[in-house]
Write a structure and sequence with these properties.
There is one protein chain. The chain is mainly beta. It has three domains: about 80 residues, Immunoglobulin-like, CATH 2.60.40; about 170 residues, Alpha-Beta Horseshoe (Leucine-rich repeat, LRR (right-handed beta-alpha superhelix)), CATH 3.80.10; about 80 residues, Alpha-Beta Horseshoe (Leucine-rich repeat, LRR (right-handed beta-alpha superhelix)). The strands form eight sheets. Strands 23, 24, 25, 27, 28 and 30 form a six-stranded mixed beta sheet that branches.
Length: about 350
């Protein structure tokens, strides 16, 4: 007998990843039809033949209960949110229960923490998950991973595991940071570290696996304008990152006598080459020589960025006559992402 009506017990439900929810449904008494179920978006959830919702990732969609003979149907709105849990100083969101992946969404370091190693895996309810992203809120990239309450930290070094291939967001203020190490040869999808006023960009050396400097250069977002960034306020130029292969001691960028240089050709047995990118805006006199030495390496100064002294307060600028290229364009080893703030 055909059903005259189909009834579901709810019009909308909220579910969390890893937790199955059953939707009650019934047909007119005496009907011999069956109730079938359909997921509006199988990326967000699956639904069994018995009406059990199996959440997969955060989002909103509908589950449809329907009959085939009488053509009846009822929709239930389902909102899936990610399961959140804490382990020590870390807070995680389960982003994909099937693939067993999590996002690190908060860190609460104590003042003794100087070397912060982000875990590759974490166990929750007897299941082990891989950590693939490090971002507080994918919908609001300005939210800091380290809450403001913990900005008086003493973190000097951060290590990211090789499993981080998703998004890496704003970390927060790290006034003592010296280095950041990525263990993964595959660079993250994106790294948004420009929201700390470019402090990390200027002060930290970023170490990456051999052969991946270009990939990480392209993953890192930079502020196009110097305003509000550490490099802009002190050297009159835009943001830049110091990305090195792990084990290398030859910087991409360095400061000598208040002059900011960017390496355009690495030094070896022969001198390398550098571009003058900026200068301490408070220098009264700027002197650019034919060569410059940093650490154990010597470089020929071959060009000057066209905006290198745009914000300088210097009364005198002396440039060696051998440096004839004085309106150079900024360039990197790989394409970069700029953000206009």
């Amino acid at each position: 007998m055909k059903a005259k009506s189909i009834t579901v017990g709810v019009s909308d439900i909220k579910a969390k990843t890893i937790k199955t929810v059953k939707i009650p449904a019934s047909l007119t008494k005496g009907s011999n039809e069956n109730i079938y179920w359909l997921s509006g978006n199988t990326d967000i959830l699956d639904v069994t033949g018995g009406g059990a919702v199996i959440p997969k990732k955060a989002g909103e969609t509908y589950v449809i209960a329907y009959t085939r003979t009488s053509g009846l149907h009822q929709a239930v709105k389902v909102t899936v949110t990610e399961t959140v849990f804490q382990e020590g100083i870390f807070t995680y969101r389960i982003t994909d229960p099937d693939k067993r992946t999590v996002t690190l969404c908060s860190i609460r370091p104590d003042k003794k923490t100087e070397d912060l190693r982000i875990p590759e895996k974490v166990t929750y309810q007897k299941k082990t998950y891989s950590m693939t992203s490090v971002i507080a809120d994918p919908e609001d990239v300005s939210t800091a991973l380290i809450p403001q309450k913990y900005w008086d930290n003493n973190i000097k070094k951060i290590t990211f595991p090789k499993t981080v291939t998703g998004k890496v967001g704003h970390l927060g203020k790290l006034e003592h940071i010296k280095s950041v190490t990525f263990l993964g040869k595959k660079a993250p999808e994106e790294v948004r570290w420009y929201l700390d006023d470019g402090y990390l960009a200027f002060h930290a050396v970023i170490y990456v696996p051999k052969g991946s400097v270009g990939a990480y250069t392209s993953a890192l977002y930079m502020s196009y304008l110097p305003d509000g960034t550490y490099a802009g306020e002190h050297y009159g130029c835009g943001m830049d990152y110091n990305i090195l292969e792990t084990g290398s001691d030859q910087m991409q960028r360095f400061v000598v006598d208040g002059i900011l240089y960017r390496v355009t050709k690495k030094a070896g047995k022969a001198n390398g080459k550098v571009m003058v990118k900026g200068a301490d805006i408070n220098l009264k006199k700027i002197t650019i020589g034919k060569t410059v030495t940093y650490g154990s390496y010597t470089y020929d100064v071959t060009e000057i960025y066209k905006k290198a002294f745009e914000r300088s307060k210097a009364e005198t600028i002396v440039i060696d006559p051998s440096i004839t290229k004085r309106k150079a364009e900024e360039r990197y080893d790989a394409p970069v992402h700029y953000v206009v703030m």
